[in-house]
Amino acid sequence: MNLQDLNRIRQIALIAARHGFGEVTERAGVWRLLGGRKEKVEVSDEARRESTARRFRLFLAELGPTFIKLGQVLSTRADLLPAEFVEELATLQDNVEAIPLEDVHAQIRDALGKDVHELFAQVDPEPLAAASIAQVHRAVTLEGEEVVIKVQRPGIAQRIDADLGVLRSLARLLEAVVEETGIYTPSGIVDEFDRAIHEELDFINEATNIRAFLENHKDRPYLKVPRVHAALSSRTVLTMEFIRGEKINPAVLAEADRKQIAQNILEASFRQLFDDGLFHGDPHPGNVLLMEGNRLALLDFGVVGRLTRPMQETLVMLCLAVALKDSDSVARILYRVGVPDARANLMGFRNDIEAILGQHLPTTLGQVDARTLLRDLLDLAVKYRIRIPKEYALLSRASISTEGMLRGLYPELNIIEVALPYAKELMAGRYDPTQLQGGLMRTLLRFQSMAQDLPTQLSQILLDLETGKFSVTVRAEQFDKLNENLRSVAVIAFLGLCACGFIVGAFIAFAPRPPMYGNTPVLGIVGIALAAALFGAVLTWYLFGGRFGKVSVTRFLKKRR
């Protein structure tokens, strides 16, 4: 670790202390790493009043672009942090100065190999937006087409890599002192951020996503996706078609328009989930523009999610199970799609899900607040140490954003009525959701869940039998105690026989030999005394050693085996 990294760690520690996290840095040994005494920092009055989640957001915001981006990435991963932190980090905004125009020109020249005037007829000097990673400018191509240019900030990749090294060092320090860090360790969270940020730094990935969305939505007139200009794009510069539109403002829209726009948003969302398997990961109002004729335009494809066909079917099953308040199916589905850290208490998991469904589904589905329902289900999965795949966590965030827009536009919209055709299409050939009663539907859902699990479980058992690894363990408390006592008695009997043999052997070996005390052989008496002392010590250890002694005997026997 170089001097620059140490200075950065010191800066982080001071800012952390100012926001009320000084105890964490001290426990982690940050000041010992820096080779000096802890510097005193006064906790701000604002930090004393605010919640931990809000203080954490302010802490990241003060640390700059890398940490702001870390917070924004974490806000899309409800499987990594508690809901309170996720909601707070969702409000984290970039607050960075614009790149000077000459730096923008230099970046374009370095990325595309030509001067700006050789590539564009005009570049607007005022940026449309300035974020922590990139800046966006309007421009006109040499052919006269209006475009937008997304230009990566100079040196941002190197700065992020340097901060990632510091983050890894801090993560290792935290792991050494924090007893419980949740499903993901600090190092695991840094690894997740590393993958996400480097995907976002490579604009070729975003261009690929845009082309995929453009292909998927080419026959859907209600949705517009910008075209990519490949010849004017690279890893650090992305040039796209300029789309004229405005942010959706329900207050200035007629009721008919609001209803139509809401239906278009819902239609686009379900098509992405159930037809395409490719969905926008951050559909907040700033990334959705309203065009003429109530058409929609999607922007910013740096974060997208992908669902396989089995994942789509699982999603439908989960929604149906939630709608039917079938806690058993919900528990099995979440357990199956997740990756438990250890064997989870499925019964306890089911009971907690039943309580959540009872709380959130008291009457009709139209009154359900999906935001809190999804949040509580994900929190419950974290509680039972079940790692939900990131695609589902990202889908949760996207669903919450979409629901927020829908409620603002047209709260009376019947989401279930719109969603039902997609569910019927995906589950065709299995059962018809419109014809079956709730009890039979619940039974079929459970059978479906168990039927999907059964082949994998049987395959594992057969494979274990074939390779000789199959074993059956029967545990009963009384048998365990009896087994433990029998082992202890066996050890005592064995040591007693050894002691008796020692006594007899010593007497026979030394009885006819000097030295003698009168007619009594001294060595024989010494051998008998040693044997008696050994046996007495073993007996005392057994009677008064308690559980420690018995466990030690058991461990000894296991090692011998």
TrEMBL record:
UniProt keywords (A-Z) are: Kinase, Membrane, Transferase, Transmembrane, Transmembrane helix
Q: Tell me which domain of life the UniProt entry assigns to the organism this sequence originates from.
A: Bacteria
Under the heading CDD domains, the entry gives: ABC1_ADCK3-like
Q: What range(s) does the ABC1 atypical kinase-like domain occupy?
A: 92-333
GO terms (molecular function) for this protein are:
kinase activity
**Pfam families the UniProt entry points to:** ABC1
Residues that span the membrane, as ranges: 489-510, 522-544
Q: Write down the Gene3D superfamilies for this protein, in alphabetical order.
A: Transferase(Phosphotransferase) domain 1
Q: Tell me its family.
A: Belongs to the protein kinase superfamily. ADCK protein kinase family.
Q: Which PANTHER family match?
A: CHAPERONE-ACTIVITY OF BC1 COMPLEX CABC1 -RELATED, PROTEIN ACTIVITY OF BC1 COMPLEX KINASE 7, CHLOROPLASTIC
Q: Under what name is this protein listed? A: AarF/ABC1/UbiB kinase family protein
Q: Which source organism?
A: Corallococcus aberystwythensis
